[in-house]
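Fig. S4 source data, part A: sequence.
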Amino acid sequence: MTRIVLDFDSPCPPRRAIDALIDFSDRRPDIWPGLAREFYEVDSVGATSAEVREGSTKPFKVWAREHYDWSTPGTVRWTVAESNSCTPGSGVAVTMTDGSNGGSHLHLEWERHPSNVRGRVAIVFMRLMGRQLLRKYIGDVLTRLADAPKGA
């Protein structure tokens, strides 16, 4: 098991960041470029939850069918239901609160449990590089969102 906890500030307002996390349109892989289109598939989207399959091809192919929940204001949680690399119940939670200058403060808790060799390799990679990669990836997406015109 690997658990990563991150806290950092972003120029992106909390509502815009949350909206990007729960955007399950065809634009999702454009908003979150780490998501591979080949894995992206939406099963259902409700008022405060969604069932989605998504994954990445870098550094190797991993995917998960996730249950997203945003019923708690300011927080988006996604939990693995099925995966080719980690056990069901593994998950991520992101909480966005007001930050300085109209931006936000992000608190992320990333926890994955490997289910096979592919998962163990991914976990070792995340133990070594995960904090830096997650901070840069999410930070870059949120900065781009903050700089984009509203509605874009």
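Fig. S4 source data, part B ends here. Strands lie at 2-10, 41-45, 49-56, 62-69, 75-83, 91-98, 104-112.
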